[in-house]
Amino acid sequence: MKNVKGFTMVELIVAIGIFVVLAATTFFLLNPAKRLGNANNAQRWEDITALAKAVELYQIDNGTLPSDLSSVTVWTNQKQVLCSSVTSLTCDGQDRDCLVVDDIDFLGKYVDSLPIDPEKSADTDTGYYITRTGDGMMTFGACDSYDSQEIIYVARASLATHTSTCGDGETTGNEVCDDGNVVREGCGNGQIDAAGTYCNASCGSVITIDTTEKCDFYSWDDECEDVTYGWLTTDDVGGYPWCDRTCNQKITVCNVAE
């Protein structure tokens, strides 16, 4: 009978190590984009969670929010991208305002520095945004993510009260629309409006003007001598230049004397 020698401990460890490396390499190569995407998403979750926890701790220690965040007026349907200097930024495919965070009492003490999305290169555009929930809670999120995963974290901290202002160009609160002014567009407002979509003076409804107005005066007339009430038609009498009720025809001649 011959003696059969088994593996030594060293040989067994080396063999296992080689197997593990080969298995890991094969696993990664099966779908490298997915592995990288999931790893980036995990980093994003870690970053926004760290931000939220840092804000919560700052508030516990100081009884207030960090100065850069204490007066944020962003609304529920808005986002402001965290950054280190003012610039034009894009978040989730839309142009967004930049919120500069450089408070030295917050950065370096409660969080080492502004976290940066793994696909970004500098804190001038971190790739992370701040918004608020419907009840005013501070919320952090990632502008982009792998596989369109929603990455948001609600901090246990309330943002400053935000009041909707009709005419500021932002549709917020109970506003239906906001075109940046409180002008009452449409026939009869005294100005010639171009075809397009507008918001009424109270930001409560949308006004659509199908064709560009040809004329528009403050008053119309059904009777030649009544210059205050009613509408003027082509059958009326008078020598005034009037505009018809559709603002598409200027009337300067009357047909029948009154």
What does this protein look like?
The chain is of the alpha+beta class and 258 residues long. It has a domain at 33-158. Helices cover 22% and strands 17% of the residues. It contains 3 helices and 10 strands, in the order αααββββββββββ. The protein has helices spanning 9-30, 32-62, 67-70, and strands at 80-83, 89-91, 94-100, 128-132, 137-142, 152-158, 196-199, 206-209, 242-243, 250-251. The strands form 3 sheets. It has a 6-stranded mixed sheet, covered by helices on one side. Strands 7-8 form a two-stranded antiparallel sheet. A two-stranded antiparallel sheet has the order 9-10. The longest helix has 31 residues, at 32-62. The protein is elongated, with a radius of gyration of 32 Å. Mean pLDDT is 82; it is low at 220-239 and 254-258.
Which keywords apply here?
single chain, 258 residues, two-stranded antiparallel sheet, 22% helix
Summarize the structure.
The chain is α+β, with helices and mostly antiparallel strands. It contains three helices and ten strands.
Across the major sheet, the strand order is 2-3-1-4-5-6
Helix content range: 10-25%
Q: Give the ordered list of helices and strands.
A: HHHEEEEEEEEEE
What structural class do the secondary elements suggest?
alpha+beta
- Please describe the biggest sheet, giving its number of strands, its sense, and whether it closes into a barrel: 6 strands, mixed
Mean pLDDT: 82
Beta fraction of the residues? Answer: 15-25%
Radius of gyration equals: 32 Å
Number of helices: 3
Topology, number of strands: 10
